[in-house]
Amino acid sequence: MGAYKYVEELWKKKQSDVLRFLQRVRVWEYRQLPSVCRVTRPTRPDKARRLGYKAKQGFCVYRARVRRGGRKRPVSKDSVYKYYEVIMVDPMHKVIRGDPRINWICAPVHVRIPQREKSECLPFLEKHRELRGLTSAGRKYRGLQGKGHNYNKSRPSKRGTWKRNQQLSLRRYR
Fold it and tell me: Is the peptide bond before 156 cis (omega within 30 degrees of 0)?
């Protein structure tokens, strides 16, 4: 197992003495900082890398403190606040623009591409993914995380399937 796998296993056992002590010390430190502050590196590097973070120029991480409430998974929490880390990418940075795996972020928002050229420009059609529910959080909210026979009723969405099943379809000539 690699180092990231060990870190992931450690974070799975949140009630362990090591992680509870570490969280308690971290939360005390976070409380002394302003509500939004830049962080040198993510608290959970394994999770950040799964979400697309790279330790290179053009990427930065901010930690935000919000009042408790809601069901999202914070990095840390105490009795009053929850702490989230946000990965930000600078689309104007030349390192980001030069990397072919990341530079889809740099494409303009309103791209008009003729039909014949669409197959060549697929990475640039990914704009306003958050409005269409295509981000990882959006897909999770829509119930589209799983695959296989257990998830047939969740396509195109749970609400869409429910609505389709509730509609009464009567043929005109019976």
Answer: yes
Alpha-helix residue ranges (DSSP H) falling in the chain: 3-12, 17-32, 45-50, 94-98, 136-141, 158-166
Q: How many CB atoms lie within 10 A of CB 83?
A: 20
pLDDT below 70 — which residues of the chain? 109-127, 174
Going by C-alpha positions, the residue among 34, 32, 36, 19 that lies closest to residue 76 is 19
Q: Is the pTM of this model over 0.70?
A: no
Beta strands, E only, 7-130: 36-39, 59-67, 76-77, 81-89
3-state secondary structure of 21: helix
Task: At 64, give phi and psi (nearest 5°).
Answer: -115, 140
The answer for residues whose C-beta is within 8 angstroms of residue 89's C-beta and 6 or more apart is 58, 59, 96, 102, 105
Q: What digits encode the pLDDT tens for the residues 154-174?
A: 887 788 888 989 998 888 886
Euclidean distance between CA atoms 42 and 85, whole angstroms: 7
